[in-house]
Design a protein that fits this description.
Elements: H1 8-19, H2 22-41, E1 49-50, E2 53-54, H3 55-77, H4 79-84, H5 87-91, H6 98-126, H7 133-146, H8 148-161, H9 165-180, H10 189-195, H11 199-212, H12 224-251
Antiparallel strand pairs: 1-2
Helix pairs in contact: 1-6, 2-3, 2-6, 3-6, 3-7, 3-8, 3-9, 3-11, 6-7, 7-11, 8-9, 8-12, 11-12
Length: 253
């Protein structure tokens, strides 16, 4: 009898493995919090009003999006190392089928994506990030849900590169997408228009919607439909690519 669904045993084992990886935990959990402290909590305008909160909270949401995406994508990309080490061949001798393996990887990625959000919530509350409880919950929840799109990107890159280089390449790609997607630096005019077509823009803008209602810090408005279409299009592209390249990589084993 085969199993196509998530394996609880493998899920728990994989989460424990990730938690023991200190370098990965620092990279995905500590770094976003440090970036928030540098660019949000310590700035002179941190208490200025932005939408239904302040500047510190606006920056916090951006780092929450980046941290959740970074954690989800890098954990999904770990498939590259498991393929390289022959672990996926071992799993093929168990009842867990490829679909169950991929589903379990996605759940692990989303579980780990919640960690930087929890850390940022605590750090932000202690350093003056201000917004109502509803806005806090809405922004962080949307950040977490949106990161699932990039779990598929991580799986794609991991399946293509199948080496330690997958993690390094992914880190660089995500940093560039964050700059291009209005996550790190507020954009305006033509740059904002171009940004609307990049993968991280939809998730970041939607995550800030409970705070700003779609308005940028420069007063430009981004319609909700733009965010939704961006997420759906890039989510479809990443999911299709993940399915194709993972199937091709396992077929070669």
């Amino acid at each position: 009898m085969t199993t196509t669904f998530i394996s609880p045993t493998y899920l728990i084992t994989d989460v424990r493995r990730v938690l023991r990886n200190r370098r990965a935990m620092i990279f995905t959990v500590v770094v976003p919090a440090m970036l928030y402290l540098v660019f949000g909590a310590t700035q002179g305008d941190r208490n200025d009003s932005v939408g239904h909160g302040n500047v510190a909270f606006y920056v916090l949401v951006g780092m929450a999006v980046y941290g959740a995406i970074l954690a989800a994508a890098t954990n999904a990309a770990s498939v590259s190392l498991e393929q390289q080490n022959g672990w996926t061949r071992t799993l093929r001798m168990t009842p867990l089928r490829p679909r169950g393996y991929v589903a379990t990887k996605v759940v692990v990625a989303m579980t780990m994506a919640a960690l930087p959000l929890a850390v940022l919530a605590v750090v932000g509350a202690l350093t003056g990030a201000t917004a109502s409880a509803a806005v806090w919950i809405g922004c962080l929840t949307l950040s977490w849900i949106g990161s699932s799109v990039f779990a598929a990107l991580g799986l794609t890159i991991g399946s293509v590169l199948r080496s330690d280089g997958a993690m390094q390449a992914l880190g660089g790609v995500l940093a560039l997408l964050a700059f291009a997607g209005n996550v790190f630096v507020p954009l305006k005019g033509t740059m904002l228009t171009v940004s609307e077509f990049t993968p991280m823009f939809g998730v970041a803008t939607l995550a800030r919607y409970p705070l700003t209602g779609g308005a940028t810090v420069y007063g430009e408005a981004v319609p909700l439909i733009v965010c939704v279409v961006n997420i759906l299009v890039w989510g479809t592209i990443f999911a299709a690519a993940a399915g194709f390249f993972y199937s091709r990589s396992t077929a070669r084993q």
